[in-house]
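ASSEMBLY PREDICTION REQUEST
Request ID: AP-0331
Submitted by: J.K., bench scientist
Number of chains: two
Total residues: 475
Priority: normal
Notes: Please return the full assembly, not individual chains.
Input sequences:
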Amino acid sequence: MVTSTDVAVWDVAAQVTDPEMPMLTLADLGVLRGAETRDDGTVVVTITPTYSGCPALDEMRSDLRHRLQDAGHARVEVRTSFSPPWTTDFISDDGRRKLAEAGIAPPAHVGPRAAGPVPLTLDPPERVVACPQCGSPDTEIVSRFGPTACTALRRCRACAEPFEHVKEI
Amino acid sequence: MGGPDSDSAYQALAETLDGDDGRWAFGAGFDAGTAEIDAPAPEGVDRDDLATYCLMLADDALVASQRLAEWTTHAPELEEEVALANIALDLLGQARVLLSRAGHLGAAEPFRVGPQDDEDVLAYFRDERAFRNVVLAEADLGDFGRTMAWMLVYSSWRLALMTRLVASRDVVLAAVADKAVKELAYQRQYAAQWVVRLGDGTEHSHARMQAGLDGVWPFVEELFAVHPVEARLVEAGVAVDPAELRAELDAVLDQVLPPAGLTRPERPAVGLVAGRGGRDGIHTEALGPVLAMMQSLARAHPEATW
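STATUS: Completed
Returned structure:
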């Protein structure tokens, strides 16, 4: 038997930060899906992975367990749920602001995927990604994959600074 | 080397290796505490069939992921190496969930030798004949051009499959598919742009790109073969009919090959022996070395955990 959202538990879990982008909390990132207390006192927190192979998932689970135990919850269960799948649209406005402040360009909103086959565009129109350092829209892609699964590498043509961009999925 | 500290460190290591406590590392499983993995098979769906189908889709990703990981430290540029490793990681993630689901449905029990998670039992302790991947997944990736040809075919096919699997009556298959669609669309985009760039590049890059596509081509036909397990599960609203996927791969190739200046190969198919292929555990000689690389460590230390 699981009760509805336990605000106190949620508030503790929501403060845990992402292991790879520590300027974001799990709540900012939008991976925290639920926080409940069972009748037997067990605290159940549910998270969702960003990418299927996200290597940070085990770290998140461990950090959540420790943080909740430190807050006095003896029995903690961290569950993973895949549905609905995470997209960058789940990153909160607060999260987007913190990313930009840390020099990482936040993702644009993409909206829900249209049903049916995914079209292939060989020469996709470049999304305008503003430089998080100087604000110039004149930036170029360096690598479609960055140091973490969710970022791409870009460079600003105006101030010449390289930067990471949380790519839209 | 030497000195009291390092001596004691080695001593400590030697002691742990002797005892049962000296264990290290494979993965933390999805089995424990994954909301969807525990769901029962949908009403009227045969549990063994569903487990086998999960293994098919898992092995397609697991073996391909292991192949792609061979590029690590060998890619032509750092950026491409990071890309290939990330793509391998996405596929590994898809495989892990599907293996856990197959394990929950009982597929791991015949292979269990210790206390490992289901996904580890299925990845490390099955032999070649128990792997259900299409032969394309185990094929030698050759040079970078061939790898891009392979990825264009593989990701286009798997994307077409996953786009349809989103509607599966099985909650795990539907959830994996929903996530995989975005990852595979990104992979296909990456591969398509390289195929055009190399095919439409220098005379040398064009020749190697065409050779890469020619090399991959014999494995394409098997992708559309329908296994009896798939046929039963298509009927049950759980699986995707592979025969449906051909038109979508054809459309991608019609779009990519002309600007790349490449011609669609005409080469005989391989991979099916008397109508049986990878889906039945009948593989090419390429799979053995891939499994040896992937499994030898786990088999040498079957008690290892982290």
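REVIEWER COMMENTS: The CA atoms of residues 90 and 183 of chain B lie 7 Å apart.
SIGN-OFF: pending second reviewer
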